[in-house]
Amino acid sequence: MKKFDNLFLVGCVLMATLLSSCGGSGNKEEESAKEEEAQAMEMKEEERVSPLEKSVGKVGDKTLSVQYGAPSVNGRQIWGNLESYGEVWRTGANEATFVEISDDVTVEGKPLPAGKYSIFTVPMKEGDWTVIFNSEWNLEHGHYQYKEEHDVLRVNVTPEWLDENQEVLKITVEDPGLVIRWEKLRLPIAVQ
Predict the structure, then answer these.
(1) pLDDT at 29
(2) What are phi and psi of 44, to 5 degrees?
(3) N or C: which end of the chain has fewer CB within 10 A?
(4) Which residues, in sequence order, are CB contacts of 103 under 8 Å at separation 6+?
(5) How far is CA 128 from CA 115, 123, 157, 182, in A?
(6) What torsion, rounded to 10 degrees, do the Cα atoms 176, 180, 185, 186 define?
(7) How far is CA 101 from CA 66, 77, 112, in A?
(8) Which tens digit of pLDDT belongs to each residue from 56-79?
(9) Alpha-carbon distance 86 to 73, whole Å?
(10) pLDDT reading at 81 higher than 50
(11) 98: closest CA among 53, 133, 54, 67?
(12) pLDDT band, residue 146 (cuts 50/70/90)
């Protein structure tokens, strides 16, 4: 009998919901759906382990903005362990990191047209790292969707190893262009 009561109650709630939605206008339904979607997105942002960060700045008269998921070290060995040497890294967490460039620039002396690009990095145990600008900038799962055939530019950048630890990944627009810091790494990417 209790199961029947519960089913009856659920049926009544569903019927009341249906009846109230039939009497309203389509605009109210659309507004309600948009509100629910906004709340879901807000909850999703709150659930992120690696917060979404953005840095905006100027290099000369050119505006650069970069958006990325910012993971923390959390006592882990990053280079050669969490992020393997010789393999493409999404240069952040979650979705692909991307940069938007207002005007044509040069990166490490090579031309890059204005636009939006995902940034990938290939860490190396020794020597220069490869920094990749890829035309598919809106990748939901970062390096899992990366396709080399969409690379627009690849440059070599010399990493710097510091004594101090950068706990949370930080990518900034500053001299000499874009600077990536995480753990003991400082990777300055020259942009002009």
Answers:
(1) 57
(2) -60, -40
(3) N
(4) 61, 62, 63, 114
(5) 26, 8, 5, 16
(6) 10
(7) 9, 32, 9
(8) 999 999 999 999 999 999 999 999
(9) 20
(10) yes
(11) 67
(12) confident
Report yes or no: 69 and 99 within 8 Å, Cβ to Cβ. no
The continuous run of DSSP H or E covering 23 comes out as: helix 2-23
Please check whether residue 56 is in contact with residue 173, taking contact to mean a CB–CB distance below 8 angstroms.
yes
Q: Please name the residue that has the structure tokens 């509100």.
A: 35
User: Residue 37's pLDDT band (boundaries 50, 70, 90)?
Assistant: low
The DSSP bridge partners found for residue 177 are 174, 190
Give how far the C-alpha of residue 34 lies from the chain's centroid of Cα atoms, to the nearest Å: 24
Contact 157, 131 (CB under 8 A): yes
Task: Kindly compute the dihedral angle of the four CA atoms of residues 130, 81, 96, 65, in this order, to the nearest 10 degrees.
Answer: -60
Whether residue 168 contacts residue 71, with contact meaning beta carbons closer than 8 Å, is answered with yes
Q: CA separation (Å) from 62 to 65, 105, 115, 136, 157?
A: 10, 8, 12, 22, 21
- Phi, psi values for residue 74, rounded to 5°: 50, 40
pLDDT for 64 equals 97
